[in-house]
Amino acid sequence: MPDVLALAGGVGGAKLAFGLASLLPPDRLTVVVNTGDDDAFHGLHVSPDIDTVVYTLAGKANRETGWGRQQDTFAALDALSELGAETWFRLGDRDLALHIRRTQLLREGHTLSEVTRDVCQRFGVEHAIVPMSDNAIRTVVETDQGVMSFQEYFVLHHSEPRVRRLVFKGIERATPSPWFEMAWQRADALVICPSNPFLSVDPILSIPGARNALASINGVRIAVSPIIGGKAVRGPAAKLFEQLGGGPADCVGVARRYAGLCTHLVIDRVDQALAPQIAALGIKPVVENTLMQTDDDRIELARAVLAVCETG
Amino acid sequence: MPDVLALAGGVGGAKLAFGLASLLPPDRLTVVVNTGDDDAFHGLHVSPDIDTVVYTLAGKANRETGWGRQQDTFAALDALSELGAETWFRLGDRDLALHIRRTQLLREGHTLSEVTRDVCQRFGVEHAIVPMSDNAIRTVVETDQGVMSFQEYFVLHHSEPRVRRLVFKGIERATPSPWFEMAWQRADALVICPSNPFLSVDPILSIPGARNALASINGVRIAVSPIIGGKAVRGPAAKLFEQLGGGPADCVGVARRYAGLCTHLVIDRVDQALAPQIAALGIKPVVENTLMQTDDDRIELARAVLAVCETG
């Protein structure tokens, strides 16, 4: 059984992480999560990608929205609005409690890694979910409508502005979180979940030393394409291929981004015809059903990924 | 029409403040509120007495509990408990929003006075509700069961420990809030609402310079007894008379505490027989119905108080 280091952003990453966690024991999986999307709302530290992964593995995620907790209410947010606060970033009451708790623990001197581990334990999540770094890294989006935070781009402006450049503010001075570093030293398989290559995976790979360390993992290094039939399942990944270069939005573009890092790329059956182009980049294409609509889909895809990890 | 400076703690003070605000225009009333009960929960700044007064004047107070907002929910608190936080101090979702907002604004450098004014404006409260000080003052309760914060004493331990001493931590270096100081310079009547003399009014009077300045208000200085027939309407006021000295818990004890400061004391009809003892202390007794169960009760008592302020 491989010792897996998985990289994840939000919804897509959380789905495959759920599948992996369903098949691997806790000591065989570390899910490293993007924190470039972290932001402060109402003075509270919000880690959207971490929370999506934690809620998903805890069985608390809201499947309809893709963010927040299931069956949450919005009384506090309504009252915040009444008090003059901006409330375009929707935070449910139960979700808000997590941000309140995290902010308090961070202010008391705990690291984001420690806080995340505590939250996982409270929620009964046994697998390690770790932030990519305990340092503050913020994805800044330079667009034709001005410079904005990731959440302003994604939530407030619905990913509509044309992106010119992404900057991961603070990344030069950032170090990987302790458990991320331990995992890359120990892992014998790397799994890049079907998350946005530009916004979710690139921040993780951009932490000084991370990409090289991951490329040195002695075993299968496999990514799952978040692009199916030229489209992203969710979010702006497809349009970012067009806006930031790297060719058209297809799994070949994904392969190009992970060339030199990954040994394998899982692509969807609808993209089977593109397999030779991926092979030509030195990456072995693996053809599977990659659309994860049910828990069974998640587990089946994870099973296929782990089979490659074991057999190469 | 007098220019009234009113001192208030929580529930009882808020009721009379409501009556006064119903009768006086906004430029004729300043309600100065105790902040010794303020505390931090989950890293959020909570000002229970200010909030009780604000909610009461805004028509949002929960009349059943005496704290918090009407028809509030507790989803966030449940989730905080799930996350391992102590939740004996009950904070509703809508109430929590106020603490989140206040904490954010305080951290951004605004004073508690400014934050409170902003909250009042948002809630449509036109009368000035001001904290006694913008400095941190904390009521510490020394008891036979140890030293504890006011909220630990009052909420967690239900006022059961025997109180040996009250300390208003930080009071020596505290200054009155700007609007408190302006009000005492301008007012021609002082009204001490029926709040706990030890826990609610004494902190305000203990701010350096405050008691002398209030005693110098050139006009009627009238208190309303929070003790009716030897009992407090709510809270531990009666037992504090026994534990901290000052004689038995009755309106004569209240008069004794305000001797040298107040010219008048409103006592309840049930205490009419004690009027001569109050007069003997140099304070004019005023006999009224002081139990405020309805809005009309509040307004009628305020009307009686204001009549004394005008006629002396």
Question: What does it look like?
Answer:
- The structure is a homodimer.
- Chain A has about 300 residues and is α/β, with parallel strands linked by helices.
- The first copy, chain A, has a domain at about 5-40 and about 115-120 and about 130-135 and about 170-310: CofD-like domains (Rossmann fold), CATH 3.40.50.10680.
- In chain A, about 40% of the residues lie in helices and about 20% in strands.
- Chain A is built from 13 helices and 14 strands.
- In chain A, the strands form four sheets. Chain A has a seven-stranded parallel β-sheet with strand order 5-2-1-9-10-13-14, sandwiched between helices.
- In chain A, helix 1 (about 10-25) links the parallel strand 1 and strand 2.
- The longest helix of chain A has 17 residues, at about 295-310.
- Chain A is globular.
- The first copy, chain A, starts with a strand and ends with a helix.
- The interface between A and B is medium-sized, with 31 and 32 residues.
List the helices and strands and how they pair.
Two copies of one chain form a homodimer.
Chain A: E1 4-8, H1 11-23, E2 29-33, E3 39-41, E4 44-46, H2 48-58, H3 75-82, H4 93-107, H5 112-122, E5 128-131, E6 138-143, E7 146-149, H6 150-156, E8 163-169, H7 178-186, E9 189-192, H8 197-206, H9 210-215, E10 220-224, E11 227-228, E12 231-232, H10 237-244, H11 251-258, E13 264-268, H12 275-280, E14 284-288, H13 295-311
Helix pairs in contact in A: 1-2, 1-13, 4-5
